[in-house]
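Purpose: get a first structural picture of the assembly so the mutagenesis plan has something to point at.
Setup: two entries, given in the order below. No constraints added.
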Amino acid sequence: MKKLKFCTFFSSFLLWIHAPESLGQSSEPPISLKGVQGKDVELPCNISPLTPDDEVALVLWYRDDSSTPFYSLDARRGGSPGHGRHSSSDSYATRTYFSTVSKPATLQLATVTKEDKGTYICRVDFKKARTRYSEISLSII
Amino acid sequence: MVLREFKVEVVLHLFLLLPAVSLTTPLRLVMLDVPSPTVVGQEVELTCSFDLNGDILYSVKWYKDDVEFYRYVPNDWPPGQFLPLSGVRVDLSKSKEQSVYIRNVALETAGIYKCEVSTEAPVFDTVSAKKEMKVYVLPTEGPKITGRHLKYRVGDTVTVNCTSAKSKPAATLNWYINDEPVGPEYETIYSTILHDDGLEVSCLSLRFLINHDHFTNGNMRIKCEASIPRVRYTMSDETLVFSDQLQHVSGLRIRENLSKVRDTAAIVATPVRWIHHLLSVLTLVYNCLFFRI
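Result (structure tokens, whole complex):
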């Protein structure tokens, strides 16, 4: 047990060491989430700009290898993500809600089924900063 | 009548095909061209050809190792923007919607490049492709041959080394004797030394016993050639070695007994020395006479 703790400590230390290297990195480390059949899940996506003078332009949610996002938030004209235009593909229209108030922002997926298992990719386009990608691997139990 | 029927059929087919085409061929990434390997100091153009199939373009984004460094967004001003990234110097004046121009390639420029194209709202259809760019560093000077003597005798062992200047990847070295590549019967040892800057030095030794086939007109040319594949880099160093005087003595005798040959050489050399002495004495006598007159 002690050994395990040391390992955890050591690996977090390693992560800390490697952190400066990934300073220019615009992708978040992948996350694994478990959802329960019939319940809701919240998929996190950090949409906060790195600098105060920057703003979110667009948030796109993709699934697996699909080239078309199933959910988009277009804030290019709205000024803030809260006033952006949300749209989702037919199969998700009634089950998804993207909350930009919470930190991190979350995509709420209602009453999940086994078919929802897979990889979810959140792409955030900023007006100034680099595009940020987050990947969530969702499993259903 | 037959012709008329045919015409009708064609028109019908066109009507059936048109909507199908616009539905089944959305945004398409035609080709991603990332030159590789490139050489330090070069200027390169990365091309991402895409077909919008009538859609409106929202963005073209370029990433190196998943970090965005260039974007082309027609609705932004200016449409082409560079996001500073070490090792990637984008020339904005030469970068366009379907290409990005990188100036002064450095070792850090190497990596996986991704081009990502997205169409406008509401669909935001997105396609992307990735390709690796390798960066080479060519040696700043040619290889050098060391360890050779000026003269050799048949039966001597030649041991020489060839060292290349630093490069990436390590240079390939090859030996040639009188323009002929050396065969497996020649003993060669290849090694590389990796330096802190990521560059490598190659060394290739050559060791062989001289026979008189090696000498033509009393000399032998030993050449070391350094090359780097895929970038057509070749440079060489050539050295000339001479056969010792003794090579003129019958080759047969040399092969029979080398020490015997050396004895003969001493004998051969003796009269030469006597003649030399005699000449010196004669010069002295002549000088004396001259001064007296």
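The radius of gyration of chain B is 36 Å.
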